[in-house]
Amino acid sequence: MKIIRNIKDITGKYKNPCVTIGNFDGVHLGHQRLFEVVQQNARRVGGTSIVITFDPHPLQVLKPGGIKLISTIEQKIELIELSGMDVLIVVPFDLKFAGTTAESFVDEILLRRIGVKDLFVGYDYAFGKGRAGNIDFLRKQGEEKGFSVTVIDAYYENDTIVSSTKIRELVAEGRMMDTSRLLGRYYQIRGKVQRGKQRGSKEIGYPTANLHISEEDLVPRTGVYVCQVIYDDVCYGGVINIGYNPTFGEKTLVAETHIFDFDHNIYGKPIKVNLLKFLRGEVKFTSIRELSEQIAKDVLSAREVLDVAVKDEQRFVW
């Protein structure tokens, strides 16, 4: 997949461009279905499948703190590439660009730079200054300027509408199994392993890999989860605690992962953590021994969940 990160780098028109525009936060099943339709049409007309998205997310600029994202831009790029699209255009979004009218976007980017022939958008998408670029606007523009507009209906999974908003709600509630059904994969957090207070190995008997996690980001419900840890392209099972360590009276949000069957020094190294299932909420234990005994139970429960997950061909390690 070719990635373009600046409008000025779009130097030529593509062969029969089949284009979709959106924020695509999380690249969930609904987004994936839209990409499939674009690709099918591109193959039919011998054209190029193109995705246009924005970085940062427009709401991060227009309403700071108003949205907590499911995926980083790096994750989004990876997932769009996995979907099989030909070209990804990442438009830098700032307050100046926010003033671009919908008609200017159509004329300058879709037509002059890309040469769009077929445009595909989600049922609720709108763009441009004041969100004037809605479905009715696009259809009129297409009729006047010679490109088709196809609107993709909402996608449902088990009678639940698949949307980024719904997924954010599920993540915040710790409903990871429901989240994975809408994403088509496990919800993932990433980061570099940091040095903690090393209680896990020295006091509790369960060493942990600690990740920085910010309350400004999309944070799952505090508690213990079954997880998969991907390090150096190898997947390991584990349990992760996301919370405040009430047993030790801490007040800082942490994500501490005990990785099964693992003995590597990974301080400063990047890992990916897939959250599979919520096991329990945080508890303030009366002693380290009581905490250690509970973790032993958590590990047993997690191994049972992971045994089933390995057999579930509908999920993938990403």
Question: Any overview of this molecule?
Answer:
The protein is of the alpha/beta class. Helix content is about 35%, strand content about 25%. The chain has ten helices and 14 strands. It has helices at about 30-45, 60, 75-85, 95-100, 100-115, 135-145, 165-170, 175-185, 200-205, 290-310, and strands at about 1-5, 15-20, 50-55, 85-90, 120, 150, 155, 160, 185-190, 210, 225-230, 235-245, 255-260, 270-280. The strands form three sheets. Strands 1-4-3-2-5-6 form a six-stranded parallel beta sheet, with helices on both faces. Strands 9-14-11-12-13-10 form a six-stranded antiparallel beta sheet. Strands 7-8 form a two-stranded antiparallel ribbon. It is elongated and about 75 Å long. The chain starts with a strand and ends in a 7-residue tail after the last helix. The mean pLDDT is about 90.
What descriptors fit this protein?
318 residues, six-stranded parallel beta sheet, alpha/beta, 34% helix, six-stranded antiparallel beta sheet, elongated, 10 helices
